[in-house]
Automatic annotation (TrEMBL), chain A:
The chain crosses the membrane at residues 7-27, 39-57, 78-108, 120-139. Residues 9-142 form the DUF1468 domain. InterPro entries: DUF1468. The keyword Transmembrane helix applies. It comes from the Bacteria. This is Tripartite tricarboxylate transporter TctB family protein. Keywords: Membrane, Transmembrane, Transmembrane helix. It comes from Chelatococcus asaccharovorans. It holds the Pfam family TctB.
UniProtKB/TrEMBL annotation, chain B:
Pfam families: TctA. Residues 21-438 form the DUF112 domain. It comes from the Bacteria. The lineage of its organism: Bacteria, Pseudomonadati, Pseudomonadota, Alphaproteobacteria, Hyphomicrobiales. The chain crosses the membrane at residues 45-69, 109-130, 150-182, 203-223, 259-281, 321-341, 353-374, 386-404, 433-450, 462-485. Keywords: Membrane, Transmembrane, Transmembrane helix. InterPro entries: DUF112_TM (IPR002823). This is TctA family transporter. The keyword Glycosyltransferase does not apply.
Amino acid sequence: MKISQDTALGTLFVAIGVAALLMALQYPMGTANRMGPGYFPLIVSALLSLIGAAIILRGRLGDAKLIEAIRWKPLAMVSAALVAFGLLIEGLGLPLAVFVLILGAALASDRFGWSGKATLGAAVFAGVCGLVFVRFLGLPIPMAGAWLKALGGF
Amino acid sequence: MGTFDGILLGLSTATTFTNFAYCFIGVFLGTAVGVLPGLGPVATISMLLPFTFGLPADTALIMLAGIFYGSQYGGSTTAILMNLPGEASSVVTTLDGHQMARQGKAGRALAAAAIGSFFAGTVGTLFIAVSAPILAGLALTFGPAEYFSLIVLGLITSMVLTSGSLLTAFGMALLGVVLGMVGTDVNSGVARYTFGMPHLMDGLDFVVIATGIFGLGDVLANLDNERVRAASVAPVSTLFPTREDWKRMIGPIVRGTGVGVVLGVLPGAGVLLSSFSAYALEKKLSRHPEAFGKGAIEGVAGPEAANNAAAQTCFIPMLTLGLPGTATMALMIGGLIVQGVQPGPEILSQQPALFWGLIVSMWIGNLLLLFLNLPLVGLWAKLISVPYHFLFPLICVFTAIGAYSINNSVFDIFLMTMFGVLGYFFRKVGAEPAPLILALILGPMAEEYLRRTLLLSHGDASVFLTSPLSLGTLVIAALLVVSILSPRLRAVRDEGLQEAD
């Protein structure tokens, strides 16, 4: 699928601009000397939609650059690893969540191969992160999360 | 309080053992992350912010300043040794710096950059100490109309000095303003663009967005061309400049500092402008302009001094007006707000120890850089050559912990991931994210000042033109837009910015 850079960006601008415009219409407008919460959003989103349309038009008229091929694997793997980190951090605690994130993100790279050394490195780094951020810097993140504590309670 | 008393107060704040130690750690970490290829100052600072969260405000600020200078200097090291500029303003450094490195003079180029930066940093700090109190006094007389016009100027400068088309940059800035409106409207209490989500009531956290777009976005973009990623690091031999080098360096350093100090105060992208201007100036003044681009030490010393002087003085509008001039400064404001410090004209009278402590620690930061970077240059060179597939999972970890620890919110991790993907998309379509980031923080201020102005003038918009300062600011903004539309100046801009891509 070949899409030009201008078409993609312009479409994004128009989509966000129009959506923001429609939502802004539902907020009270007010007048110029007593602006309501809808006044400024209306102006800005209308401008954004216009600029988006102009960018699409420019892409149609000139010789626009095409978007280079997107590699979906790293994009999906890294995002998934980060979401997993978010879901695990309060349940399992910082070190385990970091461990999962490192290994998950590393899968995105073509050069990554499972090895004992890499896993050990990730584990050490996860432990160091826990020590530095939680013990030393005092960030309020659990070392062992709520789930582990629940297990320990039985 | 006089400037001298202020500096004394600053010295007593900054030189406590704890604060000094954190300044050192900040400079060290800033350089260590800043030298990593592909990580500019914005990504570096956003990743290192969580290190400052648990600290008291003054210590956090001082460490933040250390991180800031470290990341700037780390970028220059990568530019010289690898020909990879971390941000647009170190592009100029690659021109002659990397040529010197290829001729086996990498150490001398690094020394020129470090000495130039140190001199410029010292002058820049003095300049802030003298002029910031004056400007802060002046700023107390500014009304909302003046602030609004200054914000418009800042946004327009950042659009004009961004690589790529002006239309794209304008769209990115508008998108930033729209994103800035998410959350509860302060005047009416109406929740805007929150989609009924309680997490969005307080608005999108600026640092989370910046970490996503710059930190994670860079990772995703780098993974895209993982296969073609191969770069060599130039070896570093002797560090000491020769007597001949000294002679050739002094003039450019002094002139570059002058250029940087003045241009850095401008809102927008004064840092970028100053390094380009200093390079052009040295080339014009040189008796051997043909040597530029082939490893002239003047071409490293001048722009590096200008770059650092401007990086220093761009703190002035940020501290005294609360208006960030660059994306990096916007991030610094984000870091200050986390600490409960609201930059603006009142900071000087209400928190003098903080203000002067920061200024003195800037100078200490520069001093530490000189003594840290040159001896440790071998370590930095090793860090640069760590393969990317070992580095990027660790970068992901820092971005994730950073996003979470701002509000202890899992939602922010998801938000950061989403904006990382968006940042990747922007790179794919050739849109520079700097105007968006700046607009995200300036947009809500612009709305607030616009509302106040029109409330005071009973809806009469002509106040923007009747206040001399506001009028002058808007005229400069208009001239900038006109200048970029004229074909001749456009060619100059494109030539200057093309290498930044």
